[in-house]
Amino acid sequence: MNSRFFIHITLLFAAVALLACSSEDDMSALGGQPLVLYADMPMTRSTVDNQWSVGDEVAVKIGDEIKIYYIKDAETGELTTFGNSDPFRWSPDFDSVEVTAWSLGGFVEAEPLTGITIPKDQSPENVGYTRHDLLYAKGTLTPSNTHLTFYHQLARVIVQLKFKTTVELDDISVNLGSDYDEEGNSIDIVPLTADFSAPTGNANYGTWNNFTNYPEYGGITMFHDATAEDGYDAAFSALLIPNDYSGTRFIGIDAISDMGLYYFIPSYGEANLQSGRTYTYRITVYNDFLDVTVGTDDGGTNNSVTPWSPNN
What we know:
By secondary structure, this protein is mainly beta. It has one helix spanning 24-30, and strands at residues 6-13, 35-40, 57-62, 65-73, 78-81, 97-104, 116-117, 134-141, 147-152, 155-163, 173-176, 178-180, 186-188, 190-191, 193-197, 207-209, 217-218, 220-221, 223-225, 234-240, 251-254, 262-264, 278-285, 290-294, 302-305. Strand 8 (134-141) and strand 9 form a beta hairpin.
């Protein structure tokens, strides 16, 4: 099933002992109580590997000012500012405040969030895909409501494989978006770079655009995930910029015995990737065809696909 995935961030006001001040100017300089931030881990998937890492950076913006926080405690999700940097403080002059925040794979990207790039090779040897996960949050903070939720802005694709033919699992590779034209020439169809526009109004997900401003496209080498589902032999994962890949040779499975290259061509709506969704393709591989169950909102559909190779 497709599922929205998010991070829940709780911002709590610290209980601060205020020093006695000799004048109103001293009180003004103090600036009010600091905001202490905690990144909660709900039961739903949060970061790609389901945990923060100490040192992960989060940009927090109030008004025109941006402050950089980082994860101090991965278990509790406590956030703090760098070194002696002053955190945001609650002003007694305001009953509420608008806040936005974001993190790109544990690092902070300067605004505007243009030219966001995903890697072609998302295997562990290329850092993996965990360092390219864009998270974005926005909300209104008040003394009685200090919760902020981060939403994933990329789409996640998972391929679960079950084999009914003899294979060497270590030789298997799965690629996304490595298509071919009628003459057998390679055509990479996955945009690697795009501009991100922040969500507006009540929306939690922004939009991706200006693909054509960036000429580089690619076929994605998926990350060989260690968490295959029960009954499956291998699992692969990747993060993609949202786009519609219906009708293309979207999933390619290589190095299966001597059978050449297998492809899955999704029907309409089966690969229209949206921000914040996980798309799971459960594939049983036979000697001469694939049986595919697509994780869709209506419970999935079955498709049998014959193998195709540019060498045939």
